[in-house]
Each structure stands twice: as structure tokens, then as C-alpha cells.
Specification:
614 residues, alpha+beta, BirA Bifunctional Protein, domain 2, Threonyl-tRNA Synthetase, Chain A, domain 2, 9-stranded mixed beta sheet, 4-stranded antiparallel beta sheet, 16 strands, 21% strand
Length: 614
């Protein structure tokens, strides 16, 4: 059964059980300053799992593209990928264990026709704060799962939150115990280096996790875990893994989403091992390039920080592995990219639409990397052998972007052995320093609902409306990013804004703040909301019912701003204070970027030397 068929079957199965199909969230979140990419299906649903009413109801289902940067170094085995598609269904205070577990079992055994004898279950064994999950045990046994195929694990394995175990969860994070389903590939022999006995959570490759139901019942507080207002179900199942199980294929990279690209690499490689001799280079290339396709389609450009750094790292790691296969020219790239993109063009039309831009983004980065390697080689060749060590390798990475694997190849030619563990220590020290500087960015992707961020979120709506009134109706939002310190707003406009225009926009925003206009939330039919003049971020796909925030005295006639949005917002504009636009930037291709922050009494321009334009 193909991945496309499984995706369709899953959505149809839960639709028949009164679930509403919701569109996937963008891989690159628009308004969440604390996470770089959508890393799970539940990430956009956090407010609703905490009790907010979802416009589409209490039963939801979708297929969500996800990316997890923490899995980059795991790619190379038979199952880990950085980018994946997560099939998800949710109960927001509706059904619970007695419905969810039988439904998923039915989907696996009837829809996918997986043999029951090959399915294993894991459950949460309990802790000092949360009891052992006896209720789920009863459900599984009632479904006919023998007790010898049910395994109990601690929180490290059978508790889910985006931050990890209950001890690792920050305040405000939600989570709960899990019940996972594993598929056994009986053709794979257990490798004793992973332990004497095999079990579902063994890393030998015999078992594959294919579904994880989180019973989302808890929120972390200063006092510890507290129960959420309602019992929620949060299910996630990797599409790639479900496909591998349905095909009885223990190697994810041999399913149709990857297999043609792998075959192509074997054809165009100039040297190096075949896939069955050493699959790692092939797996890294196809995984990383597939992720790069989705990132580039989402507008990410390679750079040295944040999302751009991740994209750059993926592309460059792909090229390092391509060099191991003797592939220096772009033939491997031009042939491989279409094979990785084609399975998604019907489901995600943006991929098909942006193929030229995707090609250009990735090709340009590969050209830059070649120049980087050239500079790194010059530095290596003029360095004396006694100075070539792990510290030199780290410096080459930090200064020239030279990957450790290339420095290590070069060092071996001079008879010098570099220790990857020692090199990793230098990298870790650097990463720890970076985390200290950017504390809060990666707290499991938890949305930042601080007072300052909430004010700036509402100010973004005022800014969008003011730009349209000052510059014209052609202004269209192209992206935004909000932190507690500032807002960043990207929009379509053909030219640089004059300082006088910026002042008009700023004055209008602050006028509406001074008027202390009410900010009201409604749930409306999407088409009706659009007809009424509500603005939407058109890079996103919205469900049939949407949450709308209106700023103004009269929802029908006198409103100043009306936009699709999930919040959070202040209750009236007077709570914002005042806003200062301090910089604009040209993004090219008819796009502009404005930066603004809350004005704390300093009325001087931040960019006094250059005005407000860059």
C-alpha cells in the first residue's frame, strides 16, 4: 500500500467517525517566536488542547508536514528522518481511551490489514505524580492483545510533551502518558549490541513504532502537574513508518517516497559503495534534500542563523555525502530533486508551484559550499601538520563552514587521526554558549504568550491595516515574526517607504491605540469572513470555519482591522501602550520588511545614522 493511499484512507476513516479534516499548518510557523519549524501535528493545536474552542469542533484529523532538527544526527539508520508527515487525530475533551485505542486498532488491522500477530503495545508504568495506565491495559486486552505483547516503560519512553519528561517540561507545557503501537519485522534478526533481549523500544531495527496516542491530561505548573480542564486525545502516526509496515519493508528508505531517488543516486555515483553495502550516504542525501525541498517551498533561505542555518546544514551535509560517492557535479542533484518532490505535488500544490525557486535555492547554496571548501582547503594546505587537530577542525567549521568529515578525510591523507568525540566537545561548548544567548527559543516549541508578545501580536494587526490605508489595498502580508522585544512584518509593496510614509503608518497605529478600541474574537465561516473584508495570510490554508479577531467599535461597519488569527491578543488596543517603527528592509522581489517595538518613552529613532531604511 502506498503512502498516498494510506494518507487518504486515514483521513476518510476518521471523517467517517465525525472528525473534521483540518488543513495542515505551515512547516514554517508565522507567529511563533519560540520554534523554528512545526515539529508535530499538535503544535498548532496547543491553545485548543488547553481549553480554547476550536472553530471546527472537538474532533479533528489531518496530515501534517513536520521537521525535527534534533534528528539530524540520527539519520542513517533504517527508520529516522528529519522531515516526516504525521497523521493525526484529536479529541478536544470529547472521546478518550475507550474509543481512541479500538479505532486505531481497527485502522491498522482492517484498513491497512496489518497482521495482529506482528503488533506490540507499550504503556506508561506510572510515577510518583501519575498512576500506572491500567485503564489502557484493560482496553488493549479487551481487543485481544495478549499480555505478553504489552510492555511497560517509564516516562522517558511512554510520556509525551514537546519538552520531554515531566521533569523537563517548562511551566505552561502540556503532556501526558502514552500508548504506542509497534510493528515487528520478523525478517530482521536482533543485534545483541543493543541488549541481550529484544523488545519494542529496542534500537536494533526489528521493531518500528508506527503510532503514538498521547492522553493529553496534564499541564506543568510551579507546583507540578495539574489536570487540564478536559481529557484530550492527541494521536500521531508517521506516514512513512506506516507505509513501511504495510509493505513489510524494514527500511523506510526503500518505500516509494525515497526508493527512486536512491536508485538514481546509485546510477549517477562515480565511486563509493552501493546502497546495500553502505546505505548511510544515500539515506542522508535523500532525507536532507526532501526536507530542504519543503523548507525552500516555505520561503526559507540558507543563512548562518535560525531556520536558514538548518537549511544550510541540510544541503551541505547532503553534499558531503555526495562527495563520498564521487559526485562533484550537479547531475546527482538535478536528477534527484524531482524524484523527491514528485510524490507531494498533488497533495501539496505549493511544492509543484515553487519547483523553480526550490531548485535555485538549493543549487545556489551548493555553489557557495564549493567556494567554502576551496577556501577551507587553502587554509588546510598552509597549516603545519602539528597544528591540525580537533580544535583546528572546529575552527574550520566555524570560520569556513568546512564540515568535520571533509577535514577528517584530508587529515587522513597526512597520516593524522582526528577524534570525532573531542571535536564534538568543542561543538557542544559553542552550542551551550549559543543557547545561553538565545534562552527560550527552543523550549519544546512552546508558544510564547507573554504580555509583551501579546501586545505586539495585536499591534501587528493594526500595522497591517494601517499599511493598507496609507499605501493602498495592494499591500498583502507575506510573513511575520514576533518576540517579546519586537515585531517583524513582511509585506508586498513595490518600493521603499519614505520616512514620511512610515510616520503616517506609525501615527495611525498609535492613534488607534489611543482610541482604546475593543478587540473581539468570533468564529465565522471562512467564505463569509472573506466576503466581509477579513484579511488572511494567504500562504496558509484555512479550514471551513475560522477564528477572526476584529479591532473596532462596530463589527459590521466601524472596525479598523479584521483578520483571521488564532491569537493571543489584548482585549482592547489601549493596553498596548504605543509602538515605534524603527527599521525597514528591502527583501527584493517587491517585498518589504518593517520592524517595530513597544515604545517605552524613547521617541528617538533607533537607526539615527541611517534613518529607518536598510
Amino acid at each position: 500500500m502506498t503512502a498516498s493511499t494510506i494518507r487518504q484512507k486515514y483521513l476518510a476513516f476518521f471523517k467517517a467517525k465525525d472528525h473534521q479534516i483540518i488543513p495542515p499548518a505551515p512547516l514554517v510557523p508565522a507567529d511563533d517566536p519560540t520554534t523554528l519549524f512545526t515539529n508535530s501535528g499538535m503544535q498548532p493545536l496547543v491553545p485548543y488542547l488547553k481549553g480554547q474552542i476550536h472553530p471546527m469542533g472537538r474532533r479533528l484529523v489531518d496530515s501534517q508536514p513536520c521537521f525535527r532538527a534534533e534528528d539530524i544526527d540520527e539519520v542513517g539508520d533504517n527508520r529516522h528522518t528529519t522531515f516526516f508527515e504525521m497523521l493525526g487525530n484529536w479529541s478536544l475533551g470529547d472521546y478518550f481511551k475507550q474509543d481512541q485505542l479500538p479505532w486505531f486498532w481497527e485502522f491498522l488491522t482492517h484498513e491497512l490489514k496489518l497482521p495482529k500477530a506482528r503488533l506490540y503495545i507499550s504503556l506508561f508504568k506510572g510515577s510518583s505524580q501519575v498512576p500506572r495506565d491500567q485503564e489502557s491495559l484493560k482496553v488493549w486486552k479487551k481487543l485481544g492483545v495478549p499480555e505478553n505483547k504489552i510492555y511497560w516503560y517509564e516516562a522517558k519512553k511512554n510520556w509525551w510533551s514537546r519538552a520531554g519528561t515531566p521533569e523537563e517540561m517548562p511551566e505552561g507545557e502540556i503532556g501526558g502518558p502514552t500508548s504506542e503501537v509497534f510493528f515487528e519485522f520478523d525478517s530482521v534478526d536482533h543485534n545483541t549490541k543493543y541488549g541481550k533481549a529484544c523488545h519494542p523500544n529496542c534500537d536494533c531495527g526489528r521493531f518500528l513504532e508506527i503510532g503514538n496516542t498521547v492522553f493529553m491530561e496534564y499541564e506543568k505548573t510551579k507546583q507540578g502537574l495539574k489536570k487540564l480542564p478536559a481529557q484530550n486525545v492527541d494521536f500521531g502516526g508517521g506516514l512513512e513508518r506506516l507505509t513501511a509496515a504495510s509493505q513489510n519493508q524494514p527500511d523506510i528508505f526503500q518505500i516509494e517516497l525515497f526508493s527512486e531517488a536512491v536508485k538514481n543516486l546509485e546510477v549517477v555515483k562515480k565511486s563509493g559503495p552501493a546502497y546495500n553495502q553502505d546505505p548511510l550516504p544515500y539515506r542522508v542525501i535523500v532525507d536532507h534534500l526532501r526536507a530542504a525541498v519543503f523548507m525552500a517551498a516555505g520561503g526559507v533561505e540558507p543563512s548562518n542563523k535560525d531556520r536558514g542555518y538548518i537549511l544550510r546544514r541540510l544541503i551541505r551535509r547532503s553534499m558531503v555525502q555526495a562527495r563520498k560517492l564521487g559526485m562533484e557535479q550537479d547531475e546527482w542533484l538535478s536528477n534527484t530533486l524531482p524524484l523527491l518532490a514528485s510524490p507531494y505535488t498533488k497533495t501539496y500544490p505549493l511544492i509543484d508551484k515553487k519547483i523553480p525557486e526550490i531548485n535555485q535555492t538549493i543549487t545556489q547554496e551548493i555553489d557557495k559550499f564549493r567556494q567554502t571548501i576551496t577556501r577551507g582547503l587553502k587554509e588546510f594546505n598552509k597549516t603545519s601538520p602539528n597544528q591540525i587537530n580537533e580544535r583546528f577542525a572546529f575552527k574550520s567549521l566555524a570560520t569556513y563552514g568546512m564540515p568535520f568529515e571533509i577535514t577528517q578525510e584530508l587529515a587522513q591523507q597526512r597520516g593524522i587521526k582526528l577524534d570525532k568525540g573531542v571535536f564534538d566537545e568543542y561543538v557542544k561548548k559553542h552550542q551551550d554558549l549559543s543557547r545561553t544567548v538565545s534562552t527560550g527559543m527552543f523550549k519544546g516549541g512552546l508558544a510564547d504568550h507573554s504580555e509583551a508578545t501579546t501586545k505586539l501580536h495585536t499591534a501587528t494587526h493594526l500595522l497591517h491595516a494601517a499599511l493598507k490605508k496609507v499605501l493602498g489595498d495592494h499591500v498583502r502580508q507575506e510573513g511575520s515574526h514576533i518576540t517579546a522585544e519586537r515585531l517583524r512584518f513582511d509585506f508586498a509593496h513595490p518600493r521603499v517607504l519614505a520616512d514620511e510614509e512610515i510616520k503616517k503608518v506609525e501615527d495611525l497605529v498609535n492613534q488607534k491605540i489611543t482610541e482604546d478600541l475593543p478587540v473581539k474574537k468570533t468564529i465565522e465561516a471562512k467564505n463569509q469572513a472573506l466576503k466581509s473584508g477579513a484579511m488572511a495570510f494567504f500562504k496558509e490554508t484555512y479550514p471551513d470555519k475560522v477564528t477572526v479577531y476584529t479591532v473596532g467599535r462596530d463589527l459590521n461597519q466601524g472596525w479598523f482591522s479584521k483578520e483571521f488569527c488564532g491569537g493571543p491578543h489584548v482585549t482592547s488596543t489601549g493596553k498596548i501602550g504605543s509602538v515605534r517603527i524603527y527599521k525597514q528592509k528591502n527583501l527584493g522581489a517587491g517585498l518589504r520588511r518593517l520592524y517595530a517595538r513597544l515604545n517605552h518613552g524613547n521617541h528617538q529613532s533607533i537607526d539615527q545614522n541611517q534613518g529607518r531604511t536598510q
